């Protein structure tokens, strides 16, 4: 059935803007934890500068390594608040995007870019303070000759991303949460933030012991029953 789908899927459901705004208040690490410690892309995908942050809904793009034709098409189709999520096959032999394309993205209200591939013009992009996450940089430019797909599921940094999913990134990396699940995770994320703040406050008063540790060591067979550290 999927073979009958067009290469470009223009319309798909997105996370509502108010939910994106609420979810963007949390660290990606918090959302990954409450999502079952999953959804985090491979650490090879990093921000061009640690201060960069992004949050929005995924518009997914699949390209052939070193060719950015479909990224140009995706920019033309993207809506404000979208994040370009590009399956570039992890290729680092040439850049898929640079200053000109990033400037267009910012002008159009695209919330950021995630590339499983390389970028270039990194210093200029840093000066723009536009959030770009990639596997690295390369000064080589791309070709614009090969077709690909937009709006289909892609695998980026080892994570399957569907169009419309929630995407968030900071200095730690990028986390993706399924569109259908993100709203239900918000109360859990809020509770985790409060619980962690309380634990940090307790540690600062001298309560440094991890109370779960002994039981976990026994369960793992490191300690025998009745033993302790």
From TrEMBL:
<keyword id="KW-0460">Magnesium</keyword>
<dbReference type="InterPro" id="IPR005493">
    <property type="entry name" value="RraA/RraA-like"/>
</dbReference>
<keyword id="KW-0808">Transferase</keyword>
<dbReference type="GO" id="GO:0032259">
    <property type="term" value="P:methylation"/>
</dbReference>
<feature type="binding site">
    <location>
        <position position="121"/>
    </location>
    <ligand>
        <name>Mg(2+)</name>
    </ligand>
</feature>
<protein>
    <recommendedName>
        <fullName>Putative 4-hydroxy-4-methyl-2-oxoglutarate aldolase</fullName>
    </recommendedName>
</protein>
<dbReference type="GO" id="GO:0008168">
    <property type="term" value="F:methyltransferase activity"/>
</dbReference>
<dbReference type="GO" id="GO:0046872">
    <property type="term" value="F:metal ion binding"/>
</dbReference>
<feature type="binding site">
    <location>
        <position position="120"/>
    </location>
    <ligand>
        <name>substrate</name>
    </ligand>
</feature>
<dbReference type="Pfam" id="PF03737">
    <property type="entry name" value="RraA-like"/>
</dbReference>
<feature type="binding site">
    <location>
        <begin position="98"/>
        <end position="101"/>
    </location>
    <ligand>
        <name>substrate</name>
    </ligand>
</feature>
<dbReference type="InterPro" id="IPR036704">
    <property type="entry name" value="RraA/RraA-like_sf"/>
</dbReference>
<keyword id="KW-0479">Metal-binding</keyword>
<keyword id="KW-0489">Methyltransferase</keyword>
């Amino acid at each position: 059935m999927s073979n009958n789908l067009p290469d470009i899927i223009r319309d798909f459901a997105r996370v509502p803007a108010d939910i994106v705004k609420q979810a963007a208040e949390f660290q990606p690490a918090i959302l990954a934890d409450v999502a079952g410690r999953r959804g985090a892309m491979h650490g090879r995908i990093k921000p061009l500068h640690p201060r960069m942050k992004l949050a929005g809904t995924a518009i997914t793009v699949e390209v052939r390594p070193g060719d950015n034709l479909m990224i140009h098409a995706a920019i033309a189709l993207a809506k404000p608040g979208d994040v370009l999520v590009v399956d570039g096959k992890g290729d680092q032999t040439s850049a898929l995007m640079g200053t000109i394309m990033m400037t267009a993205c910012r002008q159009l209200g695209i919330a950021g870019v995630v590339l499983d591939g390389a970028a270039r013009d990194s210093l200029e992009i840093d000066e723009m303070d536009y959030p770009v996450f990639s596997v690295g940089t390369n000064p080589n430019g791309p070709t614009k000759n090969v077709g690909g797909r937009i709006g289909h599921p892609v695998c980026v940094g080892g994570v399957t991303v569907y169009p419309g999913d929630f995407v968030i990134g900071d200095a730690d990396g990028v986390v993706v949460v399924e569109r259908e699940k993100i709203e239900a995770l918000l109360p859990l994320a809020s509770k985790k933030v409060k619980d962690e703040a309380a634990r940090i406050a307790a540690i600062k008063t001298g309560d440094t012991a991890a109370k779960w540790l002994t039981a976990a060591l026994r369960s793992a067979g490191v300690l025998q029953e009745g033993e302790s550290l």
